[in-house]
Amino acid sequence: MSKKNKNTEDVKDQVEEILDTPVEEAEKETVDVETQLKEELGKEKDKFLRLFAEFENYKKRTSRERIELFKTASQDVIQSMLPVLDDFDRASKEIEKSEDEALIKGVELIHNKLKETLKSKGLSEVEVGAGDAFNADDHEAITQIPAPSDDLKGKIVDVIEKGYKLGDKVIRFPKVVTGQ
Q1: Phi, psi at residue 158, to the nearest 5°?
Q2: Percent of the chain residues past pLDDT 90, beyond the cut
Q3: Are 131 and 55 contacting, i.e. CB atoms less than 8 angstroms apart?
Q4: CA angle, 91 then 92 then 96, to 5°
Q5: Burial 29-59 (b: 16+ CB within 10 A, else e)
Q6: Cut 0.70: pTM above it
Q7: Which candidate, 125, 170, 161, places its Cα nearest to that of 143?
Q8: For the segment 105-140, what is each residue's pLDDT rounded down to a tens digit?
Q9: Strand pairing partners for 158?
Q10: According to the model, what pLDDT value does residue 18 have?
């Protein structure tokens, strides 16, 4: 081989070597940039999903709070109406002793209308009667008296004031007398 051919081959090898190196480095750089961009995209997707989930939870929470507010918004008004309802119950009992049928019927109609109106707003009476077991979580004991019979010991002897619920929430506990 001549010197010229050898030099040409050496130059070719050098050129190929120079051309190969930047191409490989450029490929590495693009792979690194691509990997970096994929990681950043993944982080942004994760951030977006977390933010979206947080917003959905916020919407659900505020919706529940709004529904609860509507359920109990009338609680103050209804609680202030309970003494009126109690007075009406007492008045109805006294008027029933009267001989005037028209008066009894008229007061009964008004009493039923008041009860039904409050019932339509979610008010319900807490059912309790004489002989029921006393539970401090569900009843308010006003006083204790000696039990008239052995089977009424630790039980409710008399109901002084009715209790009421607004939806599932007790707004006034029944006031009772217990036997000891």
Answers
A1: -150, 150
A2: 33
A3: no
A4: 115
A5: eeeeeeeeeeeeeeeeeeeeeeeeeeeeeee
A6: no
A7: 161
A8: 988 999 999 999 999 988 899 988 888 888 888 888
A9: 177
A10: 60
Chain-centre distance for alpha carbon 37:
42
Please report the DSSP string for the chain in residue order.
--HHHHHHHHHHHHHHHHHHHHHHHHHHHHHHHHHHHHHHHHHHHHHHHHHHHHHHHHHHHHHHHHHHHHHHTTHHHHHHHHHHHHHHHHHHHHHTTSS-HHHHHHHHHHHHHHHHHHHHTTEEEEP--TTSBP-TTT-EEEEEE--SSGGGBTBEEEEEE-EEEETTEEEEPPEEEEE-
pLDDT single digits (tens) 44-85: 999 999 999 999 999 999 999 988 887 767 788 888 899 999
